[in-house]
Amino acid sequence: MAERETPGAGTPPDELGRTVASLRRAARADPGRYLPRLGYTLLRFGSLLATEPGRMAESVDVLGEAAEVYRRLSGEHLPGLGIALQRQALGLGALGRHQQGLGAAREAVEVWRGLAAEGVEGSRAELAGALLVLGARLAETGRHHEALDRIHEAVETRRLLVDRADGTGRTELTSALQELGVKLGEMGRQEEALVPLRASVAAYRETAGTAGGRAVGDLGGHAVAAFATGRALLGLGRTDEARPYFAEAAALHTEITAREPAATAFLDHLFALHGHRLTYEGGIAAWTRTPDGTTSSGRPEDGPATSGGPEAPDRPDATPPARTGTTTWTGASVRTEASAEGETAARTETSASTVPTASAEDGPATSGPDEPAAPGRGGPTRPGPAASAASGQGDSTPPGPAGPALFERIDRLNARGLALADSGRPGLAVEPLTEALALGRTAAVGTGAAGAVSLARTLHHLAFARAWSGRRTEALEAVDEAVHLCRRHLVDAPETVRPLLADATDSLGSRLAVLGRHRDAVAPATESVALFRQLAHADPAAYRDELARVLNNLSIRLCDADRHAEALAATEESLEIQRSLHHEDPAAHLPGLVHALANLALRLARLDRHDEVAAPTAEAVRHLRHLDRIHPNNDVAALAGSLAWLGGYLRRHGHRDTARDTERAAGELRRRAPEPGR
Q1: Residue 277: in which H helix or E strand, if any?
Q2: pLDDT at 50 over 80
Q3: What is the reported pLDDT for 399?
Q4: Measuring CA to CA, which residue among 73, 72, 70 is closest to residue 87?
Q5: Whole-angstrom Cα distance, residue 13 to residue 42?
Q6: What is the predicted pLDDT for the residue at 452?
């Protein structure tokens, strides 16, 4: 290769690609001379590709190649390795390849830790950036507390780097504080979140008069911090304090639009993700429900409103309000990352063929959180193709090599276990499912995604059987492993894995909840909603009712984490879906609609919105009169308990007629309940 300079800034990607190809040939012939230049050019090329629409996958591959080159060089070239790994981790996260991104982010942090320990100039600042990237990747894989630790470390590192004389490093600290506040808010720790968020907003405000104006990126960071602060305040019921922050975020959105319209896409996505939108008047509003059941958006100044939110199933949770005098119009939190999970409320499935679960620590007596749900509907997922041939007979066939016969045997054992659990014998179900698990571990060796999916499905079923048998800690271990396997193979077989992962993350939230880990339960429940949202978008007929179901479950997780405004938003979205389903097929979806209405009443009661509780309760009672029969799998006990509690609540708040009708409906429902046969 002729001696010449690497192309400078502004070089088109294709020209850089040609330079890379030339340097590869030269490096093979003379590595000592050309490898450093190849690594540097690959790093530039990969970084440039990341900015090109649709070329993120290419970017990740090129950055991975750059990292390999820098590993060979080591020594003085280690900073290049750290940069390549950190940018690769960002790209992998954007592509949804979370486990790979986590690996790259961990390695980047270790590289920068080593360089910082040696006192290499600039390495501590790079370490802080790498820690933030690692925090994001950890959160995406459900390790939220680890993520929080890394973000805390990044904040403290950046705090030490601020120059008190000239303020150098202040912008980076402000960004890190914003990240910390957002993360704390996502984990339900709103009071703690306000401290770094307010500090971040204050710091952004101080730079507002900067000569020449602020960069669009800083404006965006300021908007995110203001929006997150408003949401944290709303989560605490402090609506009046929240309004100025939302107004500030809206004004910043307008400023960004005037300078770089395309840059507002991220903010629009963020607002929508949390149930909000920008209004024509330039404010930020949450989606609200009108009396006729339609949706509209209203400005915060117009009074309390609620928004459609995450995804969860409908079922009354029967928990009474914990606070008084709070109003809210905030939307629900709908992150795709897994955060924390735990719950003590009830859950009502979205159709008559489902069996929701509920807990009543704060409200009427309902069925316990570990009651089984029907297979494939928030409970165990359906076995594989061979399951249809399963019988209740024993299977004495010895295990053979991983192949169709072994997978069929695993399916038969899964089907037998599910049948036993569904008939009310979960203790007996554990044995065939444990046998299926042993065979599944054998089948998973060397069979790629197919074996992993089979193993994950068995673990999911075993988790339910263990939970129903009272072995809650073991149930959590099984479903946690199932989720881990699904995440690891989602990229390999998305069509097969995504539905299973959606069910498993919902189950993980429930398992954490019954162990009292309510804040930890929010993250997997949120992830389940995001996954079912994707599935329902692609195939509405198959997954809309599942989306409604997991939205309801998420509302329970949020309620138990004291995020009541977001819980209400999730319930409202679930109800909206149920109304649509009921309109299309009234007979099939009437029970789901009744449960959703009862849930809405409970959510409103939780927020002490006394005068709004009567309407959805009365509507639920009216619909119950048209319910000709009650399917054995429907959670009558939870619904009857919720209605009885609502009757008492309405009586205490002056709605005597509605209270009387509701209490009568609860009694009638108990009398009509099917004989237990599960």
Answers
A1: strand 276-278
A2: yes
A3: 46
A4: 70
A5: 11
A6: 87
